[in-house]
Amino acid sequence: MRRSRILQSVLGVCLALGLAVSFAAATPAAFAASAGSAAPGTGSPLVFGLLLVGPYNDKGYSQAQYEGGRYVEEKLPGSKMIYLDQVNPTDRPGVTIPQAVDDMAAKGARLVIAGSDDMRDGILEAAVRHPEMTFIHVSGDDVLTGKAPKNLGNLFAKIEYGKMMAGFAAAMTTKTGKIGYLGPLVNDETRRVANAAYLGARYAWEHVRGKKPGELTFKVSWIGFWFNIPGVTADPNQMAGAFFDQGFDVVISGLDAPEALIVAGSRREAGADVYALPYVYKPACELAPTACLGVPYFNWGPPFLIIAREVAAGTFVPAFAWLPPDFADMNDADKSPVGFLPGPALSAENRKALDVFSAALGSGAVDMYAGPLDYQDGTVFVPAGRAATDREQWYCPQLLRGMQGKSAAK
Q1: Is 88 helix (H, G, I), strand (E, B) or coil?
Q2: What angle do CA 151, 156, 157 make, to 5 degrees?
Q3: pLDDT value for 42
């Protein structure tokens, strides 16, 4: 999201204290004052639970969180992770979040991290049921809305910056001027990150390549869930292939798994000049390196570790934490919660341009959320003369003007 100089300078302090940027203030103390009292702790070795929406080895979103949990076990002496993956109605029909939490509580868990937006209602119910435990809902906002009990916090990272860089790399590379975006289900988060990719692409197209806005096509297609479920979602392999068949030569993925990149790799092996950018999992480019322009990814280890340490010590104060990258080194595995790893297929010239763009984002010299910006239906997102607030960015009702694709599921 929009990165102010204040937010950039406070990142190190926020990470050190386990808190981050709120919509109201940029100080950890402000979070603590508004979020309630600290959850109880015993100082004993921590058992913590992790609920994953997809397979723990999906080479995507869930695996990134799973590896974040393993990072905690490595760094926090005596800690132990309990995890349950594929926590969704299709893969585990009849299994509820409160039931899963009850089981983790019986195994000694004092902290439970729910990894997906879809777990919102269930983790809220579980937190009320278990006031003696601490809960983190990744991507949620119940602290902001006032629904959260005092033992429930929210955590997310500003992956939008990584998406801007993905869009930038795509627009610098495309020869046809047609970029496809493969999206999951439709909600505020997924529209928000798709918009970020478009803004990065538009910036590269117009300000670096000097092209006319109308000559860039940026089309979003949604599969219906975070990852492919045969018979339930649209097939992402077919949808990525359809993009390439229609002359789109770069596809940016917003899915939890890497199908778009695998399809691009297969097409390149057959002689097609196409590329893709996977999502959320740092090593994803290894699946098809000749097709991979780069990957924006979450690095959950550092924020999970900060939370786990404080829960173990009894000092954690649940809050709404939306962590920006550490632009000093976005790929520092021990610091930055968001990264972008340039892929082998990104040319040296375009990588240099991407480095300049990244530095401009980090310094605040370039603000992708400076107005004027409009939504698809013509309503104003950000008027001229100012930039979008974090709240305006977080709650994202539509795709932006200039993008093709639906802003709603129906």
Answers
A1: coil
A2: 150
A3: 52
Q: What is the CA radius of gyration of the chain?
A: 20
- The answer to whether 304 and 64 are in contact (CB under 8 A) is no
The gap from C-alpha 238 to its chain's centroid, in whole angstroms, comes to 24
Torsion of CA 28, 34, 36, 41, to 10 degrees: -10
Rounded Cα gap, residues 20 and 392, in angstroms: 18
Q: How many Å separate Cα 82 from the centre of its chain?
A: 23
Length of the chain: 410
Mark out the alpha helices in 107-235 (DSSP H runs).
120-129, 142-145, 160-173, 188-203
Please report the pLDDT score of residue 14 as a whole number.
Answer: 44
pLDDT at 43: 58
**Predicted local confidence at residue 19, as pLDDT:** 40
- Res 23: pLDDT: 45
β-bridge pairing 80-84 and 134-138: unpaired
Residue pair 294/342 in contact by the 8 Å Cβ criterion: yes
**What's the predicted TM-score (pTM) here?**
0.89
Which CB contacts under 8 angstroms, 24+ apart, belong to 19-28? 19/317, 19/319, 19/321, 20/319, 20/321, 20/322, 20/323, 20/324, 21/321, 21/322, 21/323, 21/324, 21/390, 22/319, 22/320, 22/322, 23/144, 23/320, 23/389, 23/390, 23/391, 23/394
- Tell me the C-alpha distance between 369 and 363, whole Å: 14
In the structure encoding, which two tokens stand for residue 395, read together?
Answer: 């709650």
Query: What is the residue whose two structure tokens read 């699946």?
Result: 287
Structural domains of the chain, with CATH: 5-159+299-323 (3.40.50.2300), 163-295+347-394 (3.40.50.2300)
Residues of the chain predicted below pLDDT 70 = 1-43
Question: From CA 203, how far away is CA 205, in angstroms rounded?
Answer: 5
| Interatomic CA distance for residues 346 and 343, integer angstroms | 6
**Dist CA 137 CA 154 (whole Å):** 5
| Confidence (pLDDT) at 410 | 74
